[in-house]
Amino acid sequence: MEQNVDLIRSTDIRTSAGVFTLTLTREDFSGTYPGMVRYTLRLVSDGQTVSVFRTNTYEYSPTVPLKAESVALQRADEWERNLRANPRDFAEYLAWRYRPRCMPIVPAADVMVVQGSPRADGNSSILAGWSAEAARDLGRTAQVLYLGDMDIRPCIGCYRCYNTGFCTFEDDLTGVIHAVKQAELLVICSPVYTNTVPGGLKIFIDRFQAYHAERTLTGGGPGPKGLLLSVAGRRGRANFRCVTAVIDAFMRNLGIEPAGEILVDGLDEIRDVRRIPGLEERVRAAVQACLAPSR
Q: Does residue 105 belong to any structural domain of this protein?
């Protein structure tokens, strides 16, 4: 997404280690969130970026006395002062401190299946397995993500992802986002827990705000298609109301095209989705329809 960029300060610092240029810019992100402004401090030497620091107005809660602009200006003064005093060592420190992140590896696949239940052997797991098998039957690759086995911290609402496009936490979700971006289809398998998705799946959803931030900063293209498979113990479609709303909002927020849903109720009585006539065929058909070439 194109932003209005204003130059606040540009300073050339001549030292024994060469000439360093510090620039501080201001970008208006009001199109994403009302009043959001991002500040970028960049250190350049010999035409190469040595280090970048960013901060934005949404990082600072009402009880925090700091403001984004003052933090950016203070950081600029600090970098200039240290560069003049000890240019070589401080430049090396900045290059190390703000080095590129190492991304946890999650194998990419044509179809990413999220098993959103903490029960690894439950009905959601069966639906996830059917989905993966349906993709493989077409000669496509599929990867099932078991959230209960992954290290994913809850979102803390810091908004730092709008500085860099990456979450402040370096855990398994970083690799998951990278894999989802490359997928053709994302399948969410979820039970109904107190009228909504389980806590682990909600954490997964909230942390994908970093992907929304990346798309905001880069203007990312269309995402994969999205399919929801959900089970509820009680009978009645009303039991899925919150689950469908949460998943639909999640997908649309990320440019994922909702491509259908299969909602299975009454599992308190039936117990096992494998006992429902024709359900496996419906799931397989839905996955394969999402992978069919567009006409």
A: no
